[in-house]
Q: What sequence folds into this?
């Protein structure tokens, strides 16, 4: 798998501000660990800026001369409002348990989050509400190029499924499978396709 670093970290909270501390620990002897900190400065800065800052710093630690980190804004996917993110997260937990009614209930409390729209599309498709699923995918489409590559592929896969384009769906899911070999969700979707 060519894994050369292990990422270890913790998130601590003081008042309404979070601090992320991480270490990139090399798995090969002779390399030095890289310590990284991203301190928050305001309410909700964890979602607004710290996750992106941490991703850029981790990238710089792994690829020191690699130029600008190819980090897409997590804020576009997860928003910057903590209460909306928590509703998404509650919905996602129900989604993983296939409790679609409760998942939909919570995801609809954060309908502006692209990640909520993606999961709602899956719920609607699974429940036989194809038109609603297509509407969710259509609402994500204008932002597709701004999303992280894995989420782009997931959205393209469900869009292909909704339009009965089996080969296109499988192509997207195969690409995801190659990137995330240990994802049960990807293998499950690939099996369904």
A:
């Amino acid at each position: 798998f060519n894994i050369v670093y292990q990422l270890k970290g913790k998130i601590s909270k003081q008042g309404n501000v979070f601090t992320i501390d991480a270490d990139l620990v090399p798995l090969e002897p002779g390399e030095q660990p890289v310590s990284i900190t991203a301190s928050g400065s305001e309410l909700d800065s964890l979602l607004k800026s710290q996750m992106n800052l941490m991703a850029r710093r981790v990238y710089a630690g792994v690829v020191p001369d690699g130029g600008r980190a190819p980090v897409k804004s997590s804020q576009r996917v997860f928003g910057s409002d903590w209460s909306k993110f928590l509703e998404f997260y509650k919905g996602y937990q129900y989604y993983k348990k296939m409790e679609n009614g409760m998942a939909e209930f919570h995801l609809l409390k954060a309908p502006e989050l692209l990640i909520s729209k993606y999961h709602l599309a899956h719920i609607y498709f699974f429940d036989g509400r194809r038109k609603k699923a297509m509407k969710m995918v259509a609402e994500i489409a204008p932002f597709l190029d701004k999303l992280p590559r894995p989420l782009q592929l997931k959205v393209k896969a469900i869009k292909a499924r909704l339009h009965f384009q089996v080969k296109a769906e499988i192509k997207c899911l195969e690409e995801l499978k190659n990137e995330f070999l240990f994802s049960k969700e990807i293998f499950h979707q690939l099996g369904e396709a």
